[in-house]
Design a protein that fits this description.
The protein is of the alpha/beta class and 715 residues long. It has 21 helices and 25 strands. Strands 12-16-17-15-14-13 form a six-stranded mixed beta sheet.
């Protein structure tokens, strides 16, 4: 390695090392400031860290960093022998740590340190090292907790340690965060490809069945031998494809699990630097604060932690600046002088709940309402609704503008950033006891189970975890209240709107039983009418990129198993928008009602039954939904039908038995019967056709278009 490459390698190694040492210095200085009596315990650790930075900076030829660390050692060493640290001394030490962090960023950007904050601090460090009172240092630009924006280049991005087993020992391996992101993306694409292969395998099986049926029609002719040969070859290819599919599934699943594990970091690492931020805000306001982290050992995806950094920074600073009282006021109310801010994290199924809580005064609802009135906003009477006013842009109850409060932008930013993560944020408080902000976000940002809907000629995606239920609306389910439509439930009136109207898309024709999706965001709900419910699928989530920022109601892009893209909508944004929509025309007039074909649908799974019913009714069929085969047979005899769509495995009467009963009936023998089942073995398909089924559709390859096309052809 030539001299220049060696120098660059040493500098890169030093910068990686410096970042971790800055975190350690901040942590130990905070502990020392809060408990000066522990100086003999804490100072040796600080000196060891400074010594490490000094040695590494010497190897990297960063002389100014080496000099600053040496001077800071001279400042701290007397504290071991009983010297009492002063507030100015702590300010100088914290400023030096910030200046070291700033120096690392400058060196990474290939900038000189001449004229840097570190150079400006050297005279003060030398003065303090000689026992003279240090002067108050100028603030160093740049916050300690770095924001969550992506780095400008891979070289500038911090790397994450991943354990690797070598010769029986665990050695740290540095892996670029961008490389882990790219690897997860490739793993997700592999999973999508696997799902597409599964669909192709089902298509091959269906083709083989078609050839077998065609061979039966030409039995005894010369074509039978050719078709038999084709059928055998298709069977061989299907077996090989099935084996490859199983191997690919095992490999892709294992790879995905390993990649996800390599990206996991403890929650407490995502909180690094927030304690320092709380301390700086409190110090500037003459307050004292102690920050605690609960659930710090909970492992979360690094991209989620990175995305939560800025919202958590806003909330911590807000808790100290707005929530906590001045020391004398706290004492007056029987509280300790030192305020308390708690960050906590816990898993709730496939989601993560992160909370920021303080023991301060709580929200001033009257001040919030008054500020909202002066801006001409609608002021809710309900206290819970009034508390959400804090998330409105430009709304602040601070008496004056400071560096951390007064402009009313912080909590609006928090809400926008959390909703961009497909999450929601709620606030709760007790007057005089404290405030709690709760962030609810998905556990993973890369893959997602979604409900696909058709609206205005477009296919759109809604996160399944935000979908409470699917509806088939009738006029009796809907009420108009103060010019706005609502879906009536036993407990409440849920705002009802057309998703096409919310998104400014062309509205579809009114339907006798329109489909609606009930979404939830926190404690709020809304029902949105869609043209059609298509299917539920697992998709790969992709960012819209830096060129598309804050697209209205859109959170990301969803890559479907067939490679097509769909916009992933934000439930929280849609729920808010639905509440303010005027009345809409959801149902056709009597003249618009047309004669519709009647279909008896039977499936013992409520979810599958609801999805298939929504698909059929969206296509204009009048559907009678049944929970099992016996009920379907009874409903057919009572009211007749133009077609039947049934599962096979059902209680009382299965699909095969119902099909045989239909075919044996003089009255209903010609009614088409479509079996939609998870039973995909050749003998199951043969049994269904022998029973008299008109069509056999396997659920793993279920496609709403094929079901509707099959019914259209049969009818």
């Amino acid at each position: 390695m030539d001299r220049d490459r060696l120098a660059q390698a040493l500098l890169d190694s030093f910068l990686e090392e410096l970042e971790g040492h800055v975190v350690s210095l901040n942590r130990d200085l905070l502990a020392l400031e809060q408990a000066p009596a522990r100086a003999k315990e804490l100072i040796p650790g600080l000196l060891r860290t400074l010594h490490s930075v000094k040695g590494a900076s010497r190897a990297a030829s960063a002389a100014m960093v080496e000099n600053a660390c040496h001077r800071m050692e001279e400042v701290l060493e007397p504290l071991i022998h009983g010297r009492t640290p002063t507030p100015d001394l702590f300010e100088l030490c914290f400023a030096t740590v910030d200046a070291l962090d700033d120096a690392g960023r400058r060196l990474a950007a290939r900038q000189e340190l001449a004229g840097s904050p570190l150079e400006a601090l050297l005279p003060q460090l030398e003065q303090a090292a000689h026992g003279l009172p240090p002067q108050a240092p100028a603030p160093v630009p740049g916050p300690s907790p770095k924001p969550s924006q992506p780095p400008a280049s891979e070289e500038a991005e911090p790397e994450l340690p991943v354990p690797a087993q070598v010769s029986g020992e665990t050695l740290p391996v540095r892996v670029s965060g961008q490389k882990l992101d790219a690897l997860l993306g490739r793993s997700g694409e592999l999973r999508v490809a696997m799902l597409r292969l599964e669909g192709h395998a089902e298509s091959l099986e269906a083709l083989r069945d078609d050839v077998a049926g065609l061979r039966e029609t030409v039995r005894g002719t010369k074509s039978e031998t050719t078709l038999r040969r084709v059928e055998l070859e298709l069977a061989r290819v299907a077996r090989v494809l099935a084996q490859d599919r199983r191997a690919l599934f095992q490999s892709s699943t294992g790879l995905d699990d390993e990649v996800r594990r390599s990206r996991m970091l403890p929650f407490e690492e995502g909180c690094t630097g927030l304690e320092r931020a709380a301390r700086d805000v409190a110090h500037g306001l003459g307050r004292r604060v102690r920050m605690e982290v609960h659930g710090g050992g909970l492992d979360l995806d690094r991209s989620l932690l990175q995305s939560l950094r800025e919202p958590l920074l806003h909330l911590v600073r807000n808790a100290v600046a707005h929530g906590l009282e001045a020391p004398e006021e706290r004492v007056r109310h029987g509280k300790p002088e030192e305020g308390r801010v708690v960050l906590s994290a816990r898993l709730r199924g496939s989601r993560v709940e992160v909370a920021v809580e303080d023991d301060g005064r709580g929200l001033d609802l009257e001040a919030l309402r008054e500020r909202a009135r002066t801006r001409g906003l609608e002021v809710p009477e309900d206290d819970e609704e009034a508390a959400r006013l804090v998330f409105l842009p430009g709304l602040s109850t601070a008496a004056k503008v400071t560096a951390v409060s007064g402009r009313g932008v912080g909590l609006d930013v928090v809400r926008a950033q959390v909703e961009a993560l497909r999450g929601s944020v709620e606030v709760a408080f007790k007057a005089g006891q404290g405030t709690r902000f709760t962030l609810d976000v998905p556990l993973t940002l890369s893959t997602l189970r979604v409900l696909l809907v058709a609206v205005g000629g477009q296919t759109l995606a809604l996160a399944s975890e935000g979908v409470d239920r699917l509806l088939r609306l009738s006029p009796s389910d809907v009420r108009e209240v103060e010019g706005r439509m609502s879906w009536v439930t036993p407990d409440a009136l849920v705002p009802l709107a057309s998703l096409a109207a919310v998104l400014d898309l062309p509205a579809g024709p009114p339907k006798a039983r329109p489909s609606a999706v009930v979404l939830s965001a926190g404690t709020a709900q809304a029902a949105l009418v869609v043209d059609e419910v298509i299917a539920e699928q697992e998709v790969l989530v992709r960012s819209l990129g830096s060129r598309v920022k804050r697209a209205r109601h859109v959170a990301a892009a969803a890559v479907m198993p067939d490679g097509r893209m769909a916009l992933l909508l934000s439930p929280a944004s849609l729920v808010r928008a639905a509440g303010g929509r005027p009345s809409a025309h959801f149902f056709p007039t009597p003249k618009e009602q047309a004669a519709r074909r009647r279909v008896v649908l039977a499936d013992d799974s409520p979810t599958t039954r609801m999805l298939e019913q929504s698909i059929l009714e969206g296509a204009g069929y009048d559907v009678t939904a049944c929970a099992d085969g016996a009920e379907a047979w009874e409903r057919l005899q009572a009211g007749g039908a133009d077609a039947m769509v049934m599962d096979v495995e059902m209680p009382r009467m299965d699909g095969f038995q119902v099909t045989e009963a239909v075919r044996a009936s003089p009255r209903f023998g010609r009614v088409p019967v479509v079996l939609v089942t998870s039973r995909e073995k050749p003998e199951d398909k043969a049994r269904g056709l022998q029973a008299g089924a008109s069509a056999y559709i396997v659920k793993s390859a279920f496609d709403p278009t094929s079901l509707l096309e099959t019914l259209r052809r049969l009818l």
